[in-house]
Amino acid sequence: MATIPRTSAYQPKEYLCAQRGDTMKALKHVAAGTALFLSSWAATAGVTFDSVKNKGFVQCGVSTGVAGFSVNDSKGGWIGLDVDLCRALAITMFGDPAKSKIMAVSAVQRFTALQSGEVDVLPRNTTLSLTRDTTLGLIGVGVNYYDSQGIMVNKSLNVKSAKELDGATVCVQPGTTTELNLADWFRSQNIVFKPVVVERLDEIIRAFAVGRCDAFTGDKSQLAAARSNLENPGQYDILPENFSKEPLGPMVRQGDEQWFNVVRWTMFAMLEAEEYGVTSKNVDEMLKSTNPNVQRLLGVTPGMGKNLGVDDKWAYNIIKHIGNYGESFEKNLGPSSPLKLSRGLNASYRDGGLMYGWPVR
């Protein structure tokens, strides 16, 4: 096994900052945004739904480029699981996926962008947690991808477990749960590391590729996406350890239950469609279904859309234009994508996964 030079023990307040954006900057950025948001929260609560309707589009904050979730394609458009959700929201509100606008925000910028109203919703592969639900004036809507944090290394390092990384340098993004989980895990193993803190994901990947750090940590889906874009993907290993649970999902501002419900039930509609076998290819045929659940989902039985303040055909339109959750996963993350990830925990509960839409009734 290769010997990794031992570095000084991890100190939370003393980072090796490879770029200008360090953790203190990140914390100040979020704190300022939180203070601004809380000062005006009472005056603005409950207006997101009406604001979206009035301006005629949904503004979504997504990652600056995580393959499978939100990334520019060869034509310059945005694609990914989170992008599909954004377009599905536009369909729920307006019946038109083009009524969505994408704004790329960094890990440091994301909460401030939502707090300030710069974006309406944050479908940005963000981990949902108690602290984020209770201290930011924001709230998680639900999980659209169950993930875990891992670590990737170059095979030339000749390590098979993260426990062999004592003394290693590790590239990590500031202002993330990833940063904290990494410190907790290494401390629990009584080993040390030196963080190389880089704000932008694309810069982290470049730093890792040229050897500025021994390892790169992030959600395992993010690591798989990064590896698929490296010059020689087979030269890199994602180690077996799971550092944490990472339930990823969209967030909205607290205080607007109608908008919260629109986002939540847009997600659930895509999950329900997969459960009942309704796809983008057969949705018109399924309008003839005698299953009461399918009839309510597709608006054959009226009333469900009215309860949300939208058209009764909202779910039908989502499935027609975007597809169900399984279709979105398949093209963005599954075997039909460059990542070729298995469904795992993100399979329907009927197939042994955790994905479960609440009843549309």
TrEMBL record:
Residues 57-286 form the Solute-binding protein family 3/N-terminal domain. Keywords: Signal, Transport. InterPro entries: Bact_solute-bind_prot3, SBP_3_CS, Solute-binding_3/MltF_N. Pfam families: SBP_bac_3. SMART domains: PBPb. GO terms for biological process: amino acid transport. Transmembrane segments: none annotated. Belongs to the bacterial solute-binding protein 3 family. This is Lysine-arginine-ornithine-binding periplasmic protein. It comes from Achromobacter piechaudii ATCC 43553. The lineage of its organism: Bacteria, Pseudomonadati, Pseudomonadota, Betaproteobacteria, Burkholderiales.
